[in-house]
Amino acid sequence: MEKYDIIVIGGGAAGLLAAGRAAELGAKVLIIEKMERPGRKLLITGKGRCNITNIAPIEAFLEHIYPNPDFVRQAFNVFFASDIIDLLNKFGVPTVIERGGRVFPKSNSARDVVDALVKYVKRYNVQIIQGARVTQVNTANKKATGIDYIHSNQTKTVISDRVILCTGGCSYPATGSSGDGYKIAGELGHTIVKPLPSLVALEVSDKNVKELEGLNLRNVTATVLLNNKKQQSLFGEMLFETFGLDGPIILSLSRFVVEKLQNKANKISINIDLKPALDEAQLEARLLRDFNTLGRKPIGIAFKELLPQQLISFFINRLGIEPFKPCSQISAKERQAIIHLLKNFEFEITGYRPFTEAIITAGGISTKEIDPKTMQSKLIENLYFAGEIIDLDADTGGYNLQIAWSTAILAATSATQQKNE
Ligand SMILES: Cc1cc2nc3c(=O)[nH]c(=O)nc-3n(C[C@H](O)[C@H](O)[C@H](O)COP(=O)(O)OP(=O)(O)OC[C@H]3O[C@@H](n4cnc5c(N)ncnc54)[C@H](O)[C@@H]3O)c2cc1C
């Protein structure tokens, strides 16, 4: 039976990089990948453009990571944004920096990133078995000794000194990341913090929201209300879907909302300030001026300058004002209601979209059971973790992939060093 120095389970972002680095450092490495090709999820990152990383300095970077940012500090000290940029450059992928410090391949093609990583592993003679699902990590005396996998309905065993588990989370399971690693690590005694969809769209109780499908709002502020108390607020862009709310600021708020929705007693809503640049007094002055100018014209017309066309009838319905009511007949109370709704366009949140639509998985292998200096399991010697399988997740902006890159390099380096000791 063939024996490897290191087996890497999962040929995604973390697995490819870990395997390449371990082999570059002299180890005999095997990747076992469930899908017919490695890097399936990487191909769909950044809407096919792959937001590789972010150039924010470490402290600012860590602010985007949950729930235990300090856990990756040492991994970031070993390998950070400039290192992955350099490595990809070396393998023929020049990069560009965009708004918010986001780094993309100059070609705008995630395929180029996957090809570069595959080139990296091939350069150092990493073997890849594709279309093979690892079912367990074998151990003896609390030490990893190899793995079992199923290929063409046959179970096979491979022996190795070290195992790096990088099977990802369970979001977008069609890419191969369907949570297998949690089961594998759980059977070895690891605690799995309940995986939850994150960076995910939210469902609302108001069924009429489907009228707003496709409406994109820019420069609005969304605030989460938990049991009527204001929590986090974000300014930026959002989108309406048939079921509810989506788009950048909603995805960023979703981590908090999904967690709070686990307690059925919590009442959660998202309050959209449609006019964050204007306070209530300024809005009142504006409405008075507009209503005065428009006189007997219907109220619907007054909203044309204030709101996107697609929003107007939905907004008037919420107000409960007759749409053809002349502006001159709008009472002071109705005017106050309009101002209130412009500043507090509220939706009760009843749920969230499933893992099939979530960009990232919150939860995973508890960081308490992984040594942050090496990424080695504290329970099973010679077993290492890297990437999304760990209980770490981050905002959009290239932060999630950097977690995968950095933990992969640290796991590969420590696994190789320990092997050579
Ligand atoms: C739509 C979408 C867009 C995204 N865009 C970005 C972005 O632009 N920037 C960013 O930073 N992050 C982005 N992310 C998140 C990013 O893709 C992940 O953080 C990253 O892929 C995690 O890397 P990983 O190697 O841990 O897991 P994955 O990339 O998921 O790789 C895990 C691999 O393990 C394999 N595997 C699973 N189980 C087994 C098994 N039993 N045996 C063998 N192999 C197995 C899987 O097939 C898979 O290839 C996006 C995610 C999604 C879903």
Describe what this molecule looks like in 3D.
With 421 residues, the protein is of the alpha+beta class. The chain folds into 2 domains: 3-197 and 362-420, 3-Layer(bba) Sandwich (FAD/NAD(P)-binding domain), CATH 3.50.50.60; 201-352, no CATH class. It is built from 13 helices and 20 strands. The strands form 5 sheets. Strands 1, 2, 7, 8, 9, 10 and 19 form a 7-stranded mixed sheet that branches. A 6-stranded antiparallel barrel has the order 12-15-14-13-16-17. It starts with a strand and ends with a helix. The model has no long low-confidence stretch (mean pLDDT 96). The protein binds flavin-adenine dinucleotide (FAD). Flavin-adenine dinucleotide binds next to helix 1, strand 2, helix 2, strand 8 and helix 13.
Summarize the topology.
Elements: E1 3-9, H1 13-24, E2 29-33, H2 40-44, E3 53-54, H3 58-62, E4 65-66, H4 73-78, H5 81-90, E5 95-98, E6 102-105, H6 110-123, E7 127-130, E8 133-140, E9 143-151, E10 154-165, H7 180-187, E11 192-198, E12 202-204, E13 216-226, E14 229-240, E15 244-246, H8 248-261, E16 268-273, H9 280-294, H10 299-302, H11 309-319, H12 332-343, E17 345-352, E18 360-365, E19 383-385, E20 393-394, H13 399-420
Parallel strand pairs: 1-2, 1-10, 2-7, 10-19
Antiparallel strand pairs: 3-6, 4-20, 5-6, 8-9, 9-10, 11-18, 12-15, 12-17, 13-14, 13-16, 14-15, 16-17
Bound molecules: flavin-adenine dinucleotide (FAD).
